[in-house]
Structure formats: C-alpha cells, structure tokens
Amino acid sequence: MKKKFLLFVLAASGFALTSKAQDTVKTTQDAPLVLYGSVDTYYKDDFSGHANIPTSFASDNNSASIGMVDLGLKKSVGNASFVGELSFGPRNDESVPTSGYHIQNLYVSYNLSSKLNATAGYMSTFIGYEVISPTGNFNYSTSYLFTNGPFQNAGLKLTYTFSDKVSLMAGIFNDEWNVYTSQHDVSTFGAQLTLTPVKNWTAYLNVATGPTSGTIFDLTTNYQITAAFKLGLNAASFTPAHYGFGPVTYGYSGVALYPQLAVSKVVTIGLREEYFSTKSDGSTLAGPLPGGHVLGSTLSLNIKSGPFTLIPEIRYDSVNSQTYSTFTDSNGAPTTSATQFVLAAVYAF
Amino acid sequence: MKKIFLILTCLFITAAASAQKDLLSFNEQNKYIYYQVVEQPGLTADTMHARALYFLKTAYAQNKIKEGAISGNFTGSGKFLIASSLSAIKHVYGEINYTYFIECKDGKYRYWLTDFVYTPHKTDRYGNSVPEQGVDIPLEGGASKVDKREFGICLDEVGTYSKQFGDKLKQDMVKISNLSPKETHKTITTTKDW
Fold first, then answer.
1. Can you give the pTM of this predicted structure?
2. Does domain B22-174 have CATH number 3.30.530.80?
3. What is the ipTM of this complex?
4. What is the Cα–Cα distance from A258 to B4, expressed in whole angstroms?
5. Tens digit of pLDDT for each residue in B79-91?
C-alpha cells in the first residue's frame, strides 16, 4: 500500500514538473485572489498618568493594548473587480458605524472604458490624509483633522482619467458619513480632482457636500522631493448642515504638515505639525472647546524590517488657552497641554 | 523502496534548483541583463522583424514599442508585478519596470531585457495595491535597499518573466500564421443590383 502511495506521489510529482513545459506560453492572466492586511499593537503612556489627547485609536493609557487585525481580499477578472476588507479589534470598533459589524471596504468596481471606472459600495473616504489602517499612516496616533472628518462613504462614484496627470472623481453618497445605511436618502455629492503636476507630486482637491452631511473642503498633497525627503500637507474646513448629524454638529478647520526624512534603509523620522481650530458655537468629536485651537506636534520614527514596522512616538498638544482646554494634569487640575509617548508595532502582509 | 526515495529526492532537488535568478547576468554597465542569441536558419531579417512586431503588439500589448535606429530592431519598455503565491492566494510586493531590445538579422535574432527598476507597492485606503511614490530602486542596488527575502523573490520573478518573454518570442518567430493579426472577413450582399 505504501509503495502504491509513493508511486502515486512520484507520478504526481513527475507530472507537475513536466507540465511546466507547455505548448503555449501565457503572457497575460487574470490576477488570482489577493490577500492583504495588517495587525497592530501598542503601549501608550500619557505623562499625566491618564489619557488626555482625544484623537482616534490608541486610547488605552499605561496598557499593552491591541489595535486590530485587518483582512482584505480582492480579485480582478477582466474589467471587473471587488474588494472586501474586514477588521476586528478595538481599532475596528472605533472606526465602523455599527457595533458588531466589521466591514472597512466592500465594493465592486468596473472599468467602463480604459479611462472611465465605476465603483459602488462602502468605501474608505476620499477625504483627508490619514486613514484607518495603521499601515497607511506614518504616525501611529491620528490627527484632529482625521478624527473629525469622514472615515467612510457609501455610494456610487465615477472616475475619469484625462491623462496620467489629471483625473476626476464624482459621486453620490449616503446622506451621512460613516454609515452602512442612509438615514433618509443618498444626497451627499462628492468630488475629487487629482493632479500630478510633476513626477512624485500628487495633489487631491476634495469636496463632499449634502443637506444632512454638511460641507467639507479638503486639500491633501504629497511630494517626494528627493529619494529621502517627503513632504505631505492636509488642510480642511468643515461647515455643518443646518440640522447637523451625530457628534460633529459644529464646524472646524485645520492644517497639518508631514515632513519625513529617511535616514537609512531601515529608519525614517517624521513630524506631524497640526493646527486645528473649532468654530465658536459648538463642539467637535475631538479637539478644544468651541472657539479654541490646538497645536499638535508628533515626532515618530518608523523602524522597518520587511513587513514589520516599529513606531516609537512622542506627542505634545497645546491649547491656546485654559478656557478651551480639556486636558488635565496628574492631579486632575485643568492644564493647557498634554504629552504622550506611544510605542507601536505594525505587521503588514 | 530505496530507488523510489532516490528518484523522489532527485525530482525535488531538480524543482528546488530551478531558481530563475540564475538566468540573469551583468552587462558592461554592471546592470542585470537577460541576454539571448537565437539561431533561426532559413528566416530572413524582414520576416523576423514582422513577427517580432506581431509578438510585441499581441503578447505584450501594454508595452511601449519604439523602432530602433538600426533597421530590424525594436526597443521599448514594459512593467510587471512582483508577487508571491501561496496556492490560490497572492501577495503583491511591487512592480518592475524594464527596457527591452530585439534585433533581427538573416538567420538569427537576439534580444535582451535590462534596466530593471523595482518600485515597492503599498495598499491604499481602498485596498488597491499602488506603487510607492518616488521609490524607484535599480535592481543592482536592491540588495542594500530591499528586504533580503523580498529581493530574492524579485530576482526570481525577473528571471521567470524574462524567460517567459523569450519563450513567447521564440514561439511567435516560428509561426507563419503570426505574420499579421487575424482579420475578420465579412461578406456583404447587396440588394440594390439584381
């Protein structure tokens, strides 16, 4: 019996090897199913002894905590493709609209021509510089602009590529951001003009506006100036709708600069310098009290080894006046500034 | 029993030894190159020129083609993805941009692929695999800039792709029917004259 089995293995191995010599050579093929994703974990220590800085994720203080496991599958056949991305963990729970759901991206896409693409489903937002997945950000903690802006938009969008330097996306999305299901209708209009003025410089001019979601204008740009130095910028201004929705019922504006320098094959150092202000008649998800502004300085290292990235990070946020600050010191007394240290590990695959 | 084990061992060693990076060598500029000269007795330079053009237009339709200054040659550029496979699931590491050269003479032709430049991919917010902006690594300098395992996969994939390019070219060079793309002939019947 063993002999028969071994002979079978031998025959199968021989067939596998000889079958490599084919009569015809295929040069094109449909991409197979592609798997991608990440896992992340972190330790945070706010110098006051308790969590102060209110931006998204990494919210546990003095704790070895987990972010999320992110699992994406995608496939393209001919002109059609799909992406399905699921995530699990505290970072997921803070980033999806409905507890118990785990969908970050779920959409289908079709190339109507070589220049025109149609995409429908639930997608990461086109607004802003930072993203939910830790592999898409340089800093582990997130900006005020990110936390207060949209995370996802569900809808239908068309993207037309005029040239390799200009493309335009326009779409109609659910009436609210970050929802799997619209509250009333599909009434948010969104558009993105993508410009590549010179090689390695891309700028995105974004707008999303609707009677329920309000209006946000956003500029996101990245310029890899030299092989080692990259500069990013994000600026946005949000005006709520008359009735508003959710916790972001009042306006804000801000700007963040992201210089990054690769000092070796393994180590890149990067700064995020952000100015964020809230309008005087309300409050935002995260930020100073109405009418105040905050300056956030975050210095991070990205230490890479293949798919693994270690991120030590120090962050100092300062509000313009104690009147607008929500920070408290180690005694619980109001203060205008907060400092935290984060050590995060991210593995991407 | 021993014989079976011996044969099995030989087969697995053969399979493991098929690392395609060994097909690459270095040219005068110290760049990786896949270089082949193929004897094709009985075929004229013009015939092979036409067949090479057909090959480039059909098998590698996305590539940029440029007819060279010397009669009977082509040069151009192309790109392909670097990916690792685990059964049906694939992980994309990046892409390789390259240039190619094909020259035909009576009875023989030669070709090479060189100027391999690796650009790692990252996953964007929509889950798409996209090139990292501004990161272009000539393959010759890859060992010091790319993770060792990833670089090994790159070299193997470049070797595999180059060999496939050559195999397909060879196939098209000997096929008479490939002189021009097939045209669909339709018969028109007129009802005006009868």
1. 0.81
2. yes
3. 0.82
4. 62
5. 998 887 665 667 7
